[in-house]
Write a structure and sequence with these properties.
With 302 residues, the chain is an alpha/beta fold. The protein folds into 2 domains: 117 residues, Aspartate/ornithine carbamoyltransferase (Rossmann fold, 3-Layer(aba) Sandwich); 141 residues, Aspartate/ornithine carbamoyltransferase (Rossmann fold, 3-Layer(aba) Sandwich). Helix content is 38%, strand content 13%. The two termini are 36 Å apart. The structure holds phosphoric acid mono(formamide)ester. The site of phosphoric acid mono(formamide)ester has 10 residues, from helix 3.
Amino acid sequence: MNHFFTIDQLSSSEIMMLLKLAKKYKSCSPNVDKKIFGANLFFEPSTRTKMSFIVAQRKLGIDVLDFNESVSSTKKGESLYDTAKTFEAIGANFLVIRHQSDRWMDELKDISIPIINAGAGKSEHPTQCLLDLLTIYDSFEQFKELKISIVGDIKHSRVAHSNIKALQKLGADVYVSAPPGLEDDKLTIPNITVDQAVELSDVVMLLRVQSERHIGKNETKTDYLEKYGLTKLREKRMKKNAIILHPAPINRGIEIDSTLVECDRSRIFNQMENGVYVRMALMMKLLQDWGVLKHENVIEER
Ligand code: CP
């Protein structure tokens, strides 16, 4: 058989032969069983998170099941639950999901494989948080009493929401600096000005401005940088060993002066590098906790 275009090509005996072979694979397939499959289901755009998951998975020898939402059956109306259930059924050992809903995980309580949150609406981005923590730890080797300011659109930032909780848990002093209207009223920590933030902080974590939404008719990009962003003048007032973080993507010239993106204090590209390693660690832990990794199929960095 050169190709397989129509069922007419198979005789009844060939059909039965294929069914029996498939049943054999189903019941006893040692080579296939040793493989670990991870499915990356991104329903929102991503460069860093998606690609660093793929690099992390490949380094660990995990087979990556990529998913392109724009050409998937979600376009025919398939739900998130049925999409996840499909990947479970075809043999994914775990799922990585980014979705615009704050609480997408509530729909997936009946999924029986581990799921990693790669970004949930405005609520949480926990793997970004882990890589931010590693980047801070790389610079300071501790969190206690570090002064960390998160600057920008706090209200809509899933990065801010994950980081505030984790940094407080680890003993850091966390401050926020949000422009008017972008504060999160549910937070109890004080909102300080960006000028206060740069002077008191060991870590200044900038957030992406959603310019289409937040820069009004009377406010230019330069206005935003001058009023709320990290300008060259503000950077000069930072503490000697203070560092700059940004989860990216970056709006150069809006929340940060473009020349500061790769300045000595900036750890922005270190954050991206660390994303690979925290995701490797997290996937290994989950797979061990769920018993997917046994002695005979322990995966190692390749
Ligand atoms: N920081 C972050 O989540 O970037 P991406 O949207 O490119 O994944």
